[in-house]
Amino acid sequence: MDLGRVDLNQLVHLDVLLRELNVTKAANHLGITQPAMSNSLKRLRALFDDPLLVRTSEGMAPTELALEIQPAIREILFNIERVIKPDRDFDLNSRRTFRIMASDYAESTLIPEVLAVVRRQAPNITLDVLTPSDVSFEDVEQGRVDMAINRFDTIPQSFHQKTLWWDSFSCLMSAENPLVHDFTLENYLAASHIWVSKTGFGVGVGVNPEDVQRLGWVDEALVKLGAKRQISVFTRHYQVAMLLAKQHDLVATLPSRVARLKSESDKLVLKPPPFEIEEIELKMAWSPLLHHNAGHQWLRKVISDVAGAANSP
Fold first, then answer.
1. Do residues 176 and 274 share a domain?
2. Rounded distance between C-alpha atoms, residue 195 and residue 285, angstroms
């Protein structure tokens, strides 16, 4: 490739095109006309000798080459920006919207304090909190979602990630539940239980109570003991599980940070499980495309600081 043919603005245009996957949206983002953006895409295709973006039934999609060069293009632009504007502190008066995929668990235990700090430091910022079923790994990888906060079985190797905390499990039940005064493993297994999903990406499906391998940490721990609990209700929301635990004969086995949200209620009692359950890890993951972005770095620090404070005794 003849570097003399490369216009820096074209790389900027390509970066935005590969994020928006839409010529009109990319043009609006850059403040240029749609025909100008179309003409830029035409020149980019000639430069790289590749279509870069192709039409599909679901809209524009990047080619294999486009996906391959996207991280490098973003890195080149960030390096140039660092040279030209070495002071890249985030403007706390920004009106930027950050999109965060957060599991129900993270949304209950982490996001409220994160929002409080964000509102103190940068009151014009908006947080758009999405559920795991709203997004895909591709949305995060392409930078359409700023970060994902969840407990992950697997994360794409290209992602950056940070452990926010580890959490144990606790049992939440009504103060009128007979188990309160005799909470043994035998009585635990004889009780009726509330199950809460370990939510991953994508649209959820119904649960098969007999498929123990897919029921999660609590039931996997019981399998190791050769035991099985009786699940009366399946839910995807921890707040719902905590409300259902008020019924006199139900037990909710939840991550301790969630269970403690109701620990001051005189209608509910918190108990340690009568068996060992492996701790869970809450992680924050984000795309390499956003790793050097000043605003993203600021928000990551806010989230990390809040999580760190929550880990303090």
1. yes
2. 26
203 and 303 both lie in a single domain: no
| Residues 6 or more apart whose Cβ sits within 8 Å of residue 145 | 99, 100, 101, 130, 135, 139
Better-scored residue on pLDDT, 85 or 275: 275
DSSP one-letter code for 146: S
The rounded percent of the chain whose pLDDT value lies above 70 is 89
Owner of token pair 């109701």: 262
Give the β-pairing of 230-235 and 59-62: unpaired
Q: What are phi and psi of 73, to 5 degrees?
A: -60, -45
The boundaries of the domain holding residue 37 are 3-84
| Same-domain pairing of 271 and 179 | yes
Quick check: helix, strand or coil at residue 235?
strand
Let me know how long the chain is. Answer: 313
Phi, psi of 151 (to 5 degrees): -105, 115
Q: Quick one: pLDDT at residue 308?
A: 92
pLDDT tens profile 126-167: 999 998 888 888 889 888 899 999 988 888 887 889 999 999
DSSP 298: H
- The packing angle between helices 8-20 and 23-30, to 10°, is 130
Of 277, 235, 284, the C-alpha closest to 256 is 277
For the chain, what is the domain count? 3
Whether residue 136 lies inside any domain: the answer is: yes
Q: Tokens standing for 210?
A: 């007999």
Q: Is residue 90 part of a domain?
A: no
pLDDT at 86 over 60: no
Instruction: Read off the CATH number of the domain in which 156 is found.
Output: 3.40.190.10
- Inter-residue contact 47 to 37 (CB < 8 Å): no
Alpha-carbon span 26 to 185, nearest angstrom? 59
